[in-house]
Amino acid sequence: xxxxxxxxxxxxxxxxxxxxxxxxxxxxxxxxxxxxxxxxxxxxxxxxxxxxxxxxxxxxxxxxxxxxxxxxxxxxxxxxxxxxxxxxxxxxxxxxxxxxxxxxxxxxxxxxxxxxxxxxxxxxxxxxxxxxxxxxxxxxxxxxxxxxxxxxxxxxxxxxxxxxxxxxxxxxxxxxxxxxxxxxxxxxxxxxxxxxxxxxxxxxxxxxxxxxxxxxxxxxxxxxxxxxxxxxxxxxxxxxxxxxxxxxxxxxxxxxxxxxxxxxxxxxxxxxxxxxxxxxxxxxxxxxxxxxxxxxxxxxxxxxxxxxxxxxxxxxxxxxxxxxxxxxxxxxxxxxxxxx
Length: 340
What we know:
Layout: E1 38-43, H1 50-57, H2 61-64, E2 70-75, H3 79-88, E3 93-96, H4 98-106, E4 111-120, E5 122-127, E6 142-145, H5 151-164, E7 176-179, H6 185-191, E8 196-200, H7 203-210, E9 213-217, E10 229-236, H8 237-242, H9 244-263, H10 265-280, H11 286-293, E11 296-297, H12 304-316, H13 333-336
Parallel strand pairs: 1-2, 1-3, 6-7, 6-8
Antiparallel strand pairs: 3-10, 4-10, 4-11, 5-8, 5-9
């Protein structure tokens, strides 16, 4: 069974707009550059990253890459670690939340989003007995998100500021903010350590099933809830420029994985349950996965305008020091080409 291989990259967790998710590093991590016969793909063990799990389980990258190519996989604990691995050539591509991709791009990283992985899947959960009937009750309450300024954090804080006029203590607001891994939210609700959680699936459905909390705001009503990519497929601009055939092969495999999920949801759910257990040692029930699946749309289509609007919200919330310009971040040419 694969185990967590947390690296020094975790020291970068303080970056704003880091990803929301939990995971582990695994596989061969020595592939510093694309060699033509070895590539490494990264993703998180979250439901929004099922395309990565399916591609691994079904060995789909081997179908699109040249014969003999060795395909490795690496599981990441956060988006900052993932993006650094992209920039250093430790991995050639993979799935990450849109937040870290945008943050690193606006900081000067030469990266491209070449496809989406999924949309939706963010849920705002309230702890039982926290005396919360609506988001208006959150003044003075403690909320948790995976990282400061991560995708789910920005969605939640955008909604709270725009619709209820409430902000976090990060900007001297009324809500206290803490961070933690989504897989721990059920236990934190049970102990009363937090009142509200902005949760990526499947962990919202786990909380529902175990009865420690209930839905306060469902996916469709969270800011950018059904339109914002919850996961995007990222690679480096250098690779896209120097070896566009490689990137096309990677995107073709990702498209195959996404289409498999669309056409075989039940088998895809089983793959997700098994892979999450393998990576995190946590076994999720079929009912929790079923519930989570209803909140997610698996697609490789990407809308750059939505990402720009989301980035503008991040700037409005003071997660970014300068107004972001994402021109050039999204490259749809590879998903527009016919698959092999």
